[in-house]
Automatic annotation (TrEMBL):
InterPro entries named among the record's database cross-references: Fumarylacetoacetase-like_C, Fumarylacetoacetase_C_sf, RraA/RraA-like, RraA/RraA-like_sf
Positions of the UniProt region annotated as Disordered: 1-25
Keywords: Hydrolase, Metal-binding
Signal peptide feature range: none
KW Hydrolase (keyword) present: yes
Molecular functions (GO terms): hydrolase activity
Entry protein name: Fumarylacetoacetate hydrolase family protein
Organism: Promicromonospora alba
The Fumarylacetoacetase-like C-terminal domain, residue ranges: 39-235
Tree of life domain: Bacteria
Length: 519
């Protein structure tokens, strides 16, 4: 099966129309390696002790010059330029020193994958990497007999920019190709025509519709410097939504970082420096009690003194008079209803149901509904579920159906008011635990949410203790001022206190001479 790259691909394509690119026949299987390059291992932050594998369906094969779809409703389609091995004769229980004799040819491959679906694959990669067209190979084969397996080079370009370049030398690979073939052969029979994808180096990242990815494998030091030529794939947008018959797309910051290659590339906050100890913030019972005693109006004033004006969630009121909320935010984002998107994301175990099923004790569900009150964002069943799980409450700038029944659950809910319509009239439940905009305020997962009759305020965790103490101190002073006004004093000079009145206030708080309290 080893061939001269300059002539065989055209003949193969003519002779066997069902084959993909340079392959003369459809392979029985495609085996892919998870991590094989040192650069990829360092990028991922994990170094496997032995190679591990997954299978790709042969229906994922595609020829050069083709297109690949990013599925509707997904965001993280990533390329992986790789060296593909084409098996020339069956290999079963072959030693490492004989393994390369079973390889007929090498060529370029692009091991494409949708990271939005990895959560459901649990390592199998069936959904994320098994889609039609997700294994383009070619355009030409390089005869394995004329190249050193340690003397190959793989390069990838995106829109003409070189983004991946690595070799297959001993200092580049964790597992040489002969080891991979020998290892696989002790578990299964590698048959003639099978394809082995040998892993990708660092540099793999996300591509979007309109991007053009090119992959080339060559042997620069071999006679004639044989090359696979450039394997060209254009990304297009798919338009068929996922149905609710099975697992659909879902992403989080970990998948974004892995797909883009790093947290920084994905636009996320960098990880702490090695050795740095980051103490997690804890909303203690003592701090929560302070925040319950601190009125929202006072917290808002203290935050404004610290330069934070845009921390009020506008347009929400408690469903039950006198209700209060204190807790850390869990966030849920709705996007405007679009029928095809609701079909893919609205049914089944959607983001809304997942949030109410996983909210923890003391947490507040904050819902971004874009201020759209023409549809409900929760009803009595979900409110009951959150209450049973110990949630501190819900804040939504949208509507609430089953309004009285929700109130009867005992769960504090601050909302835009009642509305009888179901979710799908205006909203698509989209994602959870992301930054949201609720009532004109940005709320991050983990922010502290405090609500009372005046409204709801968002408190950054690092300021919580400081503003709680300052608010309580100010509240005590305001209470004393109110007592003076009630006693007949004019507000001029008293509200706020001038130097004279402040001195009187401080004197009133000083312990009495007998030590039995304030004088």
């Amino acid at each position: 099966m080893g061939t001269d790259a300059s002539t065989e691909p055209q003949a193969a394509a003519t002779r066997t129309p069902a084959a993909s690119g340079p392959l003369t026949e459809r392979p029985g299987k495609i085996v892919a390696v998870h991590i094989a390059y040192l650069s990829r291992s360092e990028q991922r932050g994990r170094r496997p002790a032995a190679p591990s594998y997954f299978l790709k369906p042969t229906s994922s094969l595609a020829a050069t010059g083709g297109v690949v779809e990013r599925p509707a409703g997904t965001e993280l389609l990533a390329f992986e330029g790789e060296v593909a091995l084409v098996i020339g004769r069956p290999a079963r229980h072959v030693p490492v020193e004989e393994a390369w004799d079973h390889v007929a040819a090498v060529t370029a491959a692009n091991d494409l994958g949708v990271y939005d679906l990895r959560w459901a694959d649990k390592g199998s990669n069936v959904r994320s990497k098994g889609r039609d067209g997700y294994t383009p190979v070619g355009p030409a084969l390089i005869d394995a007999r004329v190249v050193d397996p340690a003397g190959l080079r793989v390069r990838t370009w995106v829109n003409g920019e070189l983004v991946q370049e690595d070799t297959t030398g001993e200092d580049a690979l964790l597992f040489p190709f002969a080891q991979i073939v020998a290892d696989l052969s002790q578990h299964l029979t590698l048959e003639t025509g099978d394809v082995v994808l040998t892993g990708t180096p660092a540099g793999s990242s996300v591509v979007v519709p309109g991007d053009v990815v090119e992959v080339e494998v060559d042997a620069p030091a071999a006679p004639g410097a044989p090359t696979s030529g450039r394997l060209v794939t254009t990304v297009v947008q798919g338009d068929v939504p996922f149905s609710d018959v099975g697992a659909g797309p879902k992403v989080d910051d970990m998948q974004r970082a892995e797909a883009w290659g790093s947290r920084e590339a994905a636009g996320l906050t960098p990880e702490p420096e090695p050795g740095a100890v980051e103490e997690p913030f804890a909303l203690t019972d003592e701090l929560a009690d302070k925040l319950r005693r601190a009125p929202v109006a006072g917290l808002s004033a203290q935050l404004r003194k610290r330069g934070l004006d845009n921390v009020i969630i506008e347009g929400v009121r408690p469903n039950v008079p006198g209700a209060t909320i204190v807790g850390r935010a869990r966030t849920l984002r709705f996007v405007p209803n679009r029928e095809d998107l609701f079909a893919a994301h609205g049914g089944g175990y959607n983001a809304q149901k997942r949030m109410f099923d996983t909210v923890g004790a003391g947490e507040v569900i904050v819902i971004e509904a874009r201020g759209e009150k023409g549809s409900a964002t929760l009803g009595d069943v979900l409110a009951l579920r959150a209450h049973v799980r110990g949630a501190a409450g819900v804040v939504t700038d949208g509507g609430v159906r089953d309004f009285e029944a929700v109130a009867a659950t005992g769960l504090p809910v601050f909302s835009g008011g009642p509305h009888p319509a179901v979710l799908g009239r205006r909203h698509v439940p989209w994602d959870t635990d992301v930054a949201v905009a609720c009532g004109g305020a940005t709320v991050l997962p983990g922010d502290i949410v405090v609500g009372d009759a005046d409204g709801v305020v968002v408190v950054p965790p690092h300021l919580a203790e400081e503003v709680a103490d300052a608010t309580i101190a100010q509240e005590e002073q305001d209470t004393w001022v109110a007592q003076q006004v009630a006693a007949g004093h004019p507000v001029d000079g008293l509200f706020p206190p001038n130097a004279e009145w402040r001195a009187r206030y401080e004197t009133s708080r000083a312990p009495s001479p007998d030590g039995q309290g304030e004088s």
